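An example makes the point: we print one protein in full, the chain in one-letter code, the fold tokenised, without further comment:
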Amino acid sequence: MTIREDLRYGVRSLCSAPGVTLIALLTLAVGIGANTAIFSVVNAVVLRPLTVPDADSLVRFITTTGTSTSVAGVPEYEAWRRQTTFDEVAAHRLEYVNLTGPADAEQIPVARVTRGFFHLFRAPVAVGRAFTADDDRPGGARVALLSDELWRRRFRGDPAVVGRQIFLGNVAHDVVGVLAPFDTEQFDAAPAAWIPFQIDPQRIDGGNLFTVTGRLKPGVRMADADASLAVAVAAFRRDRPGSVSARTTWSVEPLWDAMIGSVRPSLNVLLGAVGFLLLIACANVANLLLVRADVRTREMAVKTALGASRGRILTQALTEALLIALASGVVGLGAGAFGVRALLTMYPSANPYRLGNAGDGIPRIGADAAAVTIDWRVLAFTTLVCLTTAIVFGLWPALRLARVDVVAAMKRVSGGLSARHTRLRAAIVVGEIALALTLLIGAILMIRTSVALSDTDAGFDPNNVVTMRTSVTATRFETRTGLTELTRTVAAQLQALPGVTVSSAACCMPLETVWQLPFIVEGRPPDTLTRNGPLTYSGFAGWTFAAPGYFDVMRIPITRGRDFTDRDAAGGPGVVVINEEMARRFWPDSDPLNDRLILGKGMRREYDQEPLRQIVGIVGNVRALGLTRPPRPEMYVPIAQEPDAVTALNVRLLPLVWMVRTSMDPLAAAPVIAKTIERASGLPVARVRSMTQIIGESTARSRFNTWLMTVFGGCAALLAAIGVYGLMAYVVQQRTGEIGIRMALGADASRIRRMLMTHGITIAVPGVVIGVTASWWLARFIAALLFDVSPRDPVVFIAAPIVFVILTLVGAWIPARRAIRVDPATALRAE
């Protein structure tokens, strides 16, 4: 027979048993679809090459002092770009600036980059030119490049835009070029415009922070670059005493690794979960086909008697398995491609305002998961999965058919598997239970994590608070006086709106934008830190400058002392409010309200203008870094008392955050609030969200993982229960005659039921033992995804097995209930 004839025969054979075929197809489609969905994400994030030519030679610079960070300052950048192991070294940072002009003003993301950035990433220029060395020198001309999207949307794709001026903030920039469609994948939001960094190597401060990327020279290995940087940091430490600590190291890592490192654990866990789910589906279908093989033994015996070889029968049986797998693959591929888009809408988007952090979203998937597509890698993976599953679930039934005993099969009246094949089916179900239990334990651990997160006190009340942002960079408001005037004017107008309870503004917002500064307690001998020059400090703490009303809006309780008032203005005594964690950590045996602080000394020259600040209040702790992170020491200072240079620095890096508490649905009140702010400031607002949404986004990754693990665990438990039921139903069918004899000899229904339930327990117990053992060992791989839950939580490891024992008993009880209703005479006649 030819391959075409084998396929035609396989189709006819499967169509002759439509129920079995449909169940097998849908069961496998669940496993293949889940694998396709998760693999398509892995493909987009991990396997898809970077869009940059020669991306293998690109590296990200890392500084390690206890912890590792890709955030760098001017001194490090200047030292790195002098290294001879790199062809090019470039710095970049994303800022948010108001684009003003003939059309309506809008807030746009602007990339501040050094000149080498475009050469590093091979940026194509469609119109005009890129930046020159003169453009990027300190004090150079104000020039800008436009993105293709902004050029077409705002300027209708007019090439004459080159040479014209655009206003970023209130500063005129000459447009020197337009970039062709181009995505470096280095920014959380696609830049609408690009401006030269104009880094001044003589301006050594700790506030000008950015990310640095380089390209290795041909033939230079990563180890060579690390060795070069080790020499460089030693020279840096020698030439600039106190600049870096003895523990500080400089290194590089592949750009690809730096981009995807944070999401890798989640993807690995999900890949493992869908792999288990597919194995369970294969086990179920294998059991189903074993039953069908038993039914078809007489058919195969006839074929053998007529001259069919065992190889031919094996080929036909595997062809049927392959047809089922391929059909399941087609269904699974479609379901996976559709389902993954729906799933990714639940995943958090990247947080573009979190300095030095790529946010909590999945990198490289693009806006609305546009990069998650079905390409040749996904098709190849799905095809491989189909072939593998066909072998996994089809081989044993095919061997069963190929090895049929012709004489025994022809003599047999009623079918029945041998004791060996019955044990084989039981072993398959035991494996299903073990795999499903492992998934269920993982799902319950994730559910407990979500519950723990929802019960976590953030330290503030997010209900009825709406937030929005205004960029004040390069406007008259980026000074202390201007920002104070703006916040007071806006607060007065907002207070007059119906439904507004209280409003405030700040540089930073919990769970999103965070900052920290060193501080010195007056009269306390400070330590010396090694960073961008000698830096004396008593400690480090989070730092937020805020307008009056901040603690009222957020409902952060003032436990001692007082809040800010309008009297805490420029020229008045400096004040600062700290949180309870800072008081506990740095004043364990004394009263902090008796002390004064010096903030930011050594970070910038401008911090020399910082007033000596009296601690006037202590407030409750806030989980500013995330609900899974403990509260850190925090300092709050009034906007009206910040030096101009510090104000300008912060509003350049991050837009001003408005926070308004309302007596109604905050998002319903948001349009009126936004218009009021725009009218009072003359500046556009962006990123309108409620604080409840912000909390939801901060835990979205955990909720997404929990949801998926719960779905996979639930599907696995259901498939395992179906497997138990199928096995017990078959056992009852095969033992009908035995049951009839027992009942005819006086066995009552309870004894028959107990016999069958005991058989079910003998299947459940080994599966549960294996599953618990495997889960205990695998728990370490899920530990990084958990919060406030032990990966080997005893409650979970007791509850999950109990659930499975109950499922197994239910799967055994239904056939047992049917068995005790069998009429003994009917059972004996069947025998």
